[in-house]
């Protein structure tokens, strides 16, 4: 796996910041949960594609509805990114549901249960 260059890291951070702002202020779709956050962004080195890892606070149905709402608003999100960022190419955004926060919470609960039984 190739190490990210400084330029690619800066682009990732900038796209993540702008995506968070767009999701917070611009999306009016009722399917998108209000507690949606952008965890990480990976922009390809050619700036054509982008994977946005999102985390949704809620149950499974809220997560699936949020992903569907974001995919339907992809054109609007891409246009807003083009207006806000000064880049040669505006990346095509693909939203991926990130389960790492939920996994960390569940592992923490399991560890607490085990340590409680030991005491």
Automatic annotation (TrEMBL):
Gene3D superfamilies: 3.30.300.20
Ranges in a coiled coil: none
Principal localisation: cytoplasm
Highest taxon, organism lineage: Bacteria
A GO MF term: ribosomal small subunit binding
BP GO terms, sorted: maturation of SSU-rRNA
Keywords: Cytoplasm, Ribosome biogenesis
Pfam families: RBFA (PF02033)
SUPFAM superfamilies: Ribosome-binding factor A, RbfA
NCBIfam families, sorted: rbfA
HAMAP family, alphabetized: RbfA
Listed PANTHER family: RIBOSOME-BINDING FACTOR A, CHLOROPLASTIC-RELATED
Record function comment: One of several proteins that assist in the late maturation steps of the functional core of the 30S ribosomal subunit. Associates with free 30S ribosomal subunits (but not with 30S subunits that are part of 70S ribosomes or polysomes). Required for efficient processing of 16S rRNA. May interact with the 5'-terminal helix region of 16S rRNA.
Similarity comment: family membership: Belongs to the RbfA family.
Name of protein: Ribosome-binding factor A
Organism expressing this protein natively: Faecalimonas umbilicata
